[in-house]
Design brief:
The chain is of the alpha/beta class. The protein is built from 22 helices and 25 strands. The chain has a six-stranded mixed sheet with strand order 10-11-12-8-13-14, sandwiched between helices. A five-stranded antiparallel sheet has the order 19-18-17-16-20, with no helix packed on it.
């Protein structure tokens, strides 16, 4: 690992990923990871990680358990006559079993695991070979008795010999115990042979072979002659057992040797899958996503980026950075401990992680160039051994950067121009930046030099940036702001912590009028900007509250309308039934009267009774709630209207037919409402100035797909808003917006419109093989 990766904290990130792996060999692979060559390799790995992460989020876990690395054993046993040990075979069968399970998992989720198809379809679980190993090995890693007929016979003889040996040893032990020759109660084994622990003074009481004595000399270990022959037989059988086991292992290894290459492939795939799965676990833990990877343009954009090592220990303020194409240098200024270096390191670490093919903790809409190299000068590089001062080391790093940087590199320089005379340091820093800007290198630097702040205003390829500072509390907020330089707030902070006013005033005098004026201007800008942002946040909260209330009102209004309509239908049906029944009865009465010769006046009276029943029924019909404004109805700016369900009358002051929304002034307050919620008030028409009449027309059912590619920004926005309105009115549940990747402007606009469109339940990017971040799926 090079110095840049080490200083950015990549090793710790690798350890966090390694913690997610199940195998030691995978963990070692992660720790030894290297950058990937080319954008295609990076995207392939990111897509594979994303596929596994999506399955994890659905509770579908990759069936990988702990397995051992047997690559060295496979290499050793490629030579004829060599053989794998029993534990090697056991590890091999575990690997083959997991490969079989992994193939089953892939077949079950083939559609979701398309990015891994080229990897997993190379697995061959070798079931015949796996069965061969299982036939001769047991789960504890030993060779089964049934591995061969000869091994069965030998082990049976061993068991018989051991039984006979124990019987003879017990007999001799009983005699020695009676005679008090024993120093210990139980026999023991020396050099693989059963011996008796006798008192040293009694060692010649039993004829046999002495195999030594204890360290104190008090115990002698004697093998009685009566069991020497049995021990010899047992030893011979054990040798024969090992020879038979070795023969079996050689035979099995020989049968497996033609498949060593496939077994190695299977193991490599298992390690790679464990690696990808560990990355997916890291990605899920830190809420990572896959940004757009760009190769040509140097556009860099982070949406709510978080430094993973900081996020591990505390709540962090997300970093939002947008460096457009054509900008080659960003100069970050601001007070100490305000987050300048952390922001720069976050940019560097996340850019480096992408080069390794790792997901990064950013939100959708982020874009990161595929840098060919990342160069860096940060921290105190003073070296006593090499006789280098801080400044000398700083210049040495700058020399290396200037020799290595290309138009596709990322350069990070912390505190540019420090360690020497400020005037000379600023001049040197500017010269270095000019050289990097000329070659198109994307450079991010931090500094306190005012001269470098001024340089950003003189070169269109350079931008100032600052870390936001709360001027009321004199505390950093750690928010990144692009476009304006920041003040160091040295005098303000010094005064706040109690430095004498006379010293602070004298320091301000020594700064010079122009410098003081500049610092005051920066302070005023920062204060004004901070207040505006606070007000904007308050307005946004109020807007969200209002939108929520409008949505709730429209939902309740729709529910009331539906309830009344249902009641109307029920009452009408009931009345119709009653009329029909009454009519039938009266007609029967009239028939009876006619048949019985009633007078004409009596019949007329009966018909009047029928008509009176009908009239009464009609009077009981409920009053209907006024219908919503129909799409065909003409509305104009200046019309008097009532918002349905309220008593207040207002005037239309702004009308957007395409968006089906209008701004209505009610008692001096302006609210935005849906056209469907407006009821015209005709009697008040003359009190308002006439406006231009706009016809709201019904539209046909829209397509399920809208393609915005190739359209101008405003044209695309208007078409998208019209399309969403039509889709919502048509009751469509899901649509597809094709905006492409390009510069990202259409994509960003699309997401802003969707966030602000009532009725949109959620939206997300299409699968990578179906368009990825160039297509947004909308659910309504």
């Amino acid at each position: 690992m090079n110095a840049v990766a080490e200083k950015l904290g990549l090793q710790r990130v690798l350890e966090l990923i390694a913690e997610q792996a199940v195998s030691d060999c995978t963990r070692e692979k992660i720790r030894q990871a290297e950058t990937l060559e080319g954008q295609d390799a990076i995207l392939q790995q990111l897509n594979r990680i994303n596929a596994l992460q999506m399955l994890k989020e659905r509770g579908e876990l990759v069936p990988i358990r702990c397995f051992e690395d047997i690559r060295e054993e496979l290499q050793r046993c490629r030579v004829e006559g060599s053989y794998l040990f029993a534990e090697n075979l056991l590890n091999m069968v575990i690997i083959l079993q997991q490969c079989k399970e992994l193939i089953g998992f892939y077949k079950k989720h083939r559609e979701n695991l398309k990015p891994l198809a080229g990897l997993l379809e190379s697995i061959d679980p070798l079931e015949r070979e796996s069965g061969l190993i299982r036939r001769i090995t047991s789960e504890d890693g030993t060779i089964k008795d049934s591995a061969s007929a000869e091994l069965t016979r030998i082990r049976r003889q061993i068991q018989q010999t051991v039984t006979r040996l124990h019987r003879e040893v017990d007999r001799v032990m009983d005699q020695a115990r009676r005679e008090n020759w024993l120093h210990e109660e139980n026999p023991t084994i020396r050099d693989g042979r059963f011996v008796l622990p006798l008192r040293s003074e009694s060692k010649r009481k039993i004829k046999g072979i002495i195999h030594g004595q204890s360290a104190t000399g008090a115990t002698s270990y004697v093998e009685p002659l009566i069991i020497v022959e049995i021990n010899n037989t047992l030893k011979e059988l054990e040798i024969a057992e090992q020879e038979e086991i070795e023969r079996i292992l050689k035979q099995v290894t020989g049968e497996l040797r033609p498949q060593f290459n496939q077994i190695r492939i299977n193991l490599d795939i298992l390690i790679e899958t464990d690696f990808l799965n560990a990355c997916a676990g890291f990605s899920r833990q830190f809420h990572c996503s896959i940004p757009d990877i760009t190769s040509e343009q140097q556009t860099l954009e982070f949406q709510n980026a978080r430094h993973p090592l900081l996020a591990l220990v505390k709540e962090v303020v997300p970093l939002n950075v947008s460096i457009p194409g054509g900008i080659h240098c960003v100069i970050i200024t601001g007070p100490n401990a305000g987050g300048k270096t952390v922001a720069m390191k976050t940019i560097g670490l996340l850019s480096l992680m992408i080069r390794y093919g790792f997901p990064v903790p950013v939100e959708d809409g982020s874009r990161i160039p595929c840098f060919d190299k990342i160069l860096m000068d940060i921290g105190d590089q003073q070296s006593i051994e090499n006789n280098l001062s801080t400044f000398t080391s700083h210049v040495s790093n700058l020399k290396t950067i200037l020799e290595s940087a290309t138009s596709r590199s990322l350069v990070l320089i912390d505190e540019l121009g420090t360690g020497t005379d400020p005037l000379e340091g600023a001049a040197l820093g500017r010269a270095v930046l000019e050289s990097l800007v000329q070659r198109g290198t994307l450079t991010v630097v931090t500094t306190h030099h005012s001269g470098l702040k001024a340089y950003a205003d003189q070169d269109p390829h350079v931008l100032n940036a600052a870390m936001e500072f709360d001027t009321d509390e004199l505390q950093p907020t750690y928010r990144f702001r692009l476009g304006l330089p920041g003040s160091s707030y040295a005098l303000e902070i010094s005064k706040r912590i109690g430095l004498a006013d006379t010293v602070v005033t004298r320091a301000r005098d020594l700064m010079g009028a122009e410098q003081v004026k500049l610092e005051h201007l920066l302070l005023e800008i920062e204060t004004l900007k901070s207040r505006i942002e606070k007000e904007n946040r308050s307005v946004e909260r109020n807007k969200q509250t209002l939108d929520k209330l409008i949505d709730e009102y429209e939902e309740k209004l729709a529910a009331v309308r539906a309830k009344h309509e249902a009641m109307d239908e029920k009452i009408a049906e009931e009345l119709e039934r009653l009329v029909n029944e009454s009519r039938s009865k009266i007609e029967h009465a009239v028939k009876d009267i006619r048949e019985k010769g009633a007078s004409r006046e009596t019949i007329i009276d009966a018909q009047k009774t029928l008509q009176s029943i009908r009239t009464a029924a009609q009077k009981r019909q409920p009053c209907k709630i006024p219908p919503k404004v129909a799409p065909e109805k003409c509305l104009s700016v200046g019309d008097a209207v009532r918002v349905a369900g309220t008593s207040g009358i207002g005037q239309i002051i702004e009308l957007h037919v395409d968006k089906r929304r209008a701004a209505v002034d009610i008692t001096g307050k302006t609210i935005w409402v849906s056209l469907d919620s407006l009821e015209p008030v005709q009697n008040f028409k003359e009190d308002y100035p006439a406006g231009k009449s706009v016809l709201i027309q019904a539209e046909s059912l829209p397509s399920t797909r809208l393609d915005l590619r190739g359209k101008r920004f405003e044209e695309a926005r208007e078409e998208l808003e019209r399309y969403l309105d039509r889709a919502l009115l048509a009751g469509m549940k899901q649509v597809q917006i094709i905006h492409g990747k390009g510069s990202g402007a259409l994509q960003k606009m699309t997401r802003e419109v969707l966030k602000n469109t009532p009725g949109v339940r959620k939206f997300y990017f299409e699968n990578f093989d179906q368009g990825g971040t160039g297509v947004t799926i909308v659910e309504m």
